[in-house]
Amino acid sequence: MIALHNRGRSGGKIRQANVPKNRQPNPYLRKKSKDASSKRKMRSHSPNKYLPARSLNDLLNHISLAIDKNELKTLKLILTGPEKISGKLFEEYDTCRDLFTKLRQNGHISENDVSILFRILFILGRKDLQCDAEQYTVDKAVPYAYSIMLPFPYLSDQQRLNAIWKRTGKKGKIYEECEKICKLIESISNSILHVWPAYDTKANDDIVFVVLTKSIEDKLHVEEKLGNIGYNIFVKNIDSTGKESEAVLQKLNKLKKKPQPLTYSQKEDIKVAIRKNSDRLLQNHQYLSAISGSNVRSKNFMLKQSEYRVPFQPCIVLYVIAKGKIPLHESKFENHIDGIPVDVREGIFETTTLPFEKYTRPVQMGCQITSNDTSPSYGTLGGFYYHSDFGLCGITCAHVVLNWDNMNKLKGEKQVLSSASPMVFQPDTTRPRHQLGPVKEVVYREGNEKSSGIDMAIFKLEDNAPESGRFPGSEICFETGRTLGTSGLRYNTQVLKYGRTTGLTRGYIEFEETTVRLCKFQCQYTIKNDEHPYLLKKQIEIRPDISESPQFKLFNDGGDSGAFVFAKDSDDQLACIGMCVGKLNSNGIVIPISVIKEEFGISQFCDFQTKHLSEQIQEINKEMKMMNGKLDRLLSRK
User: pLDDT tens, 262-310?
Assistant: First the structure.
């Protein structure tokens, strides 16, 4: 039997060891060939009719029939132990692995031989897995290799990945190797949404695989599944990415001395910096979900709660899914952008559509709607206005009534849809009477430095017309149809909205030019072979009002896309400032009313107050006519 010395005692050579007579033959290895004549005979045999080898040396001798001397030398050098597996030999290591695969594909060795070689190779590279401090035999190495869960016989282990990464940096085979490992991890559980390789800034920049799940239950399930995979794993459920934003709000709510709002010049400086740098930042950081501004910084969130601080300091806020876990091909964020401090927080932007069921008649603002193109996803009916060509129309987000493929095909200028356009229903598509009317116009545009992004659709109301500006089950009314542009808003302006999921919620203006996008695993579409994310620039960001509730609240949630957002104008009347399009953690993201009015030529929304007054006047006129008729009849009798 063979003894493999890993301490350099045999000069790196493979030597024979005494084999006890009563030792059973190793079932994992093949029998030894007799002599050189048998080798010559093997050359003429078909790949599947070679003589089996009994020991590792004989297996190497058998392989030598199919490879040259240099390849055999490399193979033997690699298999002499961890003392020989050093930074200088990584290329030879790769050659060895490629050689195994090639020999198997050509039929010179079996799948079982390849598995044995890879597993022995794996153990030789892992001192923590070696069977004996001084030496170990193939008899021990092979069964031990089968008793542990290897990452995959053709992949590098964690120790080797870290060594390659720190030696070569952002080049070489590291990306290809990590991509294979990501696919392996994704295949282990259906609860895994997405996996990417990163370097951990909190752990000496070692490689870590970030695994995303939806819920905490999925996270616990995946952690159990990946417990012994052999790689550094960081499992993150995206439902928890808003914890830092919640901590900021709760910390500020407890402060006796409230932070000073951004001055006009500070706010303008931040806006200019975001306009100037947002494209570069989004291009260079694929898991950057949003860019905003703030008057406070979040410090030491990952540490103990007692050390967490929220100092007053104007800054640009960059929201990422996992702090400190930077994708391999990316660099760390700069500390300042155009001289403005940078605050990196955990967070993720999401559009807000969600399944739900509630029928409303007559139709009202804030009720649930869907279409035959997006069901079973649902959103909110924002409001109403009279279109010069289509008559009475409803307003919502384009992604509420169009699926992603159809919506993104229409990306760019406003599009008028044909007669085959999707049909809008309230609350669902289960019954014909739930039908409201067809989608008529849609627009989705990312926006730029000068104009806000927009995601909006209008549909014709052919049935179930509204009768008032009331919301379902609420005393709140939007009767006037008034609007209020961003020029009339400032930090801490109080706002409210009514959505089909969260109902009536209140909040405050946080920032007026936030950039958001859906990350790669959430939504991706292709135009002319180029991949594009869902992206909106210059959106209004609103933080929720948590002062009146012991439990933390969201401003909006899944299903609230399309809901109108309101503020009080100078006459203390509700005026629409925009439309909910998504959420950034607990904060709402709102399309400004200015771009909505400009795109669709809307001067104001339905004026139910004037309508009611007109109806009252008509009723008075009817009553006057009736009274005049009675008076005439009385006079005629005389």
Answer: 898 999 999 999 999 999 999 999 889 999 999 999 988 877 777 788 8
Q: Domain range for residue 26?
A: 2-147
On whether residue 37 sits in a domain, the answer given is yes
- Amino acid, res. 98: D
Q: Are 270 and 303 found together in one domain? A: yes
What pLDDT does residue 85 have? 39
Give all strands (DSSP E) within 35-145, no chain letters: 135-137
Looking at the structure, tell me whether residues 138 and 220 fall in a common domain.
no
> 333 with 197, same domain?
no
| Other Cβ atoms closer than 10 A to 91 | 12
Position 266 scores a pLDDT of 93
The radius of gyration computed from the CA coordinates of the chain, to the nearest angstrom, equals: 34
With 50 as the cut, is the pLDDT of residue 325 above it?
yes
Choosing from 347, 382, 400, the residue where a domain stops is: 347
Clarify whether residues 45 and 135 are in a common domain.
yes
Any idea what the CATH number is for the domain that residue 165 is in? 3.30.300
Q: Are residues 529 and 581 in the same domain?
A: yes
* Assigned domain for 480 exists: no
The domain tally of the chain equals 5
On average, the pLDDT of the chain sits at 75
Task: Name residue 628's amino acid.
Answer: N
- Is the domain of 499 the same as that of 581? yes
> Cα dist. 570→152, 434, 574, 575, 614 in Å?
67, 39, 10, 10, 25
The overall longest dimension of the chain from CA atoms, in Å, is 143
Last residue of a domain, one of 147, 170, 190: 147
Same domain for 130 and 172: no
Distance CA 140, CA 31 (A): 18
Q: Is residue 588 part of a domain?
A: yes
| pLDDT at residue 170 tops 50 | yes
pLDDT of res. 281: 94
Highest mean pLDDT among 17-21, 449-453, 476-480: 449-453
202 shares its domain with 276: no
Higher-scoring residue by pLDDT: 81, 503: 503
Q: Is the sign of the CA dihedral 460, 466, 469, 470 positive or negative?
A: negative
Predicted local confidence at residue 497, as pLDDT: 92
471 — pLDDT class (breaks 50, 70, 90): confident
C-alpha distances (whole Å) from 283 to each of 178, 359, 412, 535, 612 are 21, 43, 20, 12, 52
DSSP 589-629: EEEEHHHHHHHHT-S----HHHHHHHHHHHHHHHHHHHHHH
* Distance from C-alpha of 465 to C-alpha of 392, rounded to nearest angstrom: 8
**pTM for the model:** 0.69
Going by C-alpha positions, the residue among 294, 261, 293 that lies closest to residue 277 is 293
349/540 Cα distance (integer angstroms): 13
